[in-house]
Amino acid sequence: MGAVHKDGLVEPILRLQPQAGPRRVAVTLDACPGHFDPRIANFLVDRKIPATIFITAVWMRMNPEGLAFFLKHPDVFTLENHGARHLPPVLGAQRIYGLEVAGSWSAIEAEIAGGAAAIYEVTGRHPAWYRGAAGLYTPSVVPRIEAMGVRVAGYSLNSDAGASLPAALVEARIKAARDGDVMEGHINQPKRASGAGIAAGLAALKGAGVQFAKLDDAA
Questions:
Q1: How far apart are alpha carbons 69 and 210 in whole angstroms?
Q2: CA–CA separation, 183 vs 25, rounded Å?
Q3: To bridge 131 with a disulfide, which of 32, 46, 147, 153 should be the other Cys (CB 3.0-4.6 Å)?
Q4: What is Dmax (Cα atoms) for the chain?
């Protein structure tokens, strides 16, 4: 896993293990605090495209029907840890993309443990992956997170810039996915155009014969 450095923070890069054959992509989607986007969820089920959902405990409380939909389709959706309160795993006092950061290691540890407990309560399994809010980390906390027994889930393709991009641009980004890309997007903003772009981009990849791998195939 490499990392892009931004103002003293790291944004981990994660890719699939190299493999001969057709182009492969892993789909990961963040369920940050917000709502449930059925445009994306229904498309994934209809096309049988596996997706890892990085889900927050607060989203689970806000969206019981969306959570039930994910749980109804375990062949498509794998739930992994996006934290209890959606606090970036960053030390100190600052805000990132408008989000209050965790601030201390004890708060980061509580954020991860709380998110994991919420997932275990509904699935009976301990999540294997953690992706921090905003995808940015204080460098020194990354090995401490991994010492908790979880892998840090970076990505190599940011499809929607926090669900802020127009549908056509999101679609274009996804259509340009390279072999081995781990795609990141959002499934919590049903009223934004970006969700339609995610579905359209994935449809284009499916039509081009791209294979969709699970995140556990990541290097």
A1: 25
A2: 7
A3: 153
A4: 47
- Please give the Cα distance from 47 to 25 (Å, whole number): 15
pTM over 0.85: yes
- In angstroms, the CA 29 to CA 174 distance is 13
- DSSP assignment letter at 217: G
Among 209, 211, 212, 202, residue whose Cα is nearest residue 172: 202
- Rounded to whole angstroms, the Cα distance separating 187 from 77 reads 12
Reference 218, options 159, 155, 175; nearest CA is: 155
> What is the per-residue pLDDT across 139-189, written as a single tens digit (0 to 9) for each?
999 999 999 999 999 999 999 999 999 999 999 999 999 999 999 999 999
Residue 34, helix vs strand vs coil: coil
Q: At what angle are helices 64-72 and 38-47 packed, to 10 degrees?
A: 10
What are the start-end ranges of the E strands in the chain? Answer: 2-6, 9-13, 24-31, 51-55, 77-81, 95-96, 99-100, 129-130, 151-152, 157-158, 181-186, 211-213
Closest CA to 14 of 207, 213, 210: 213
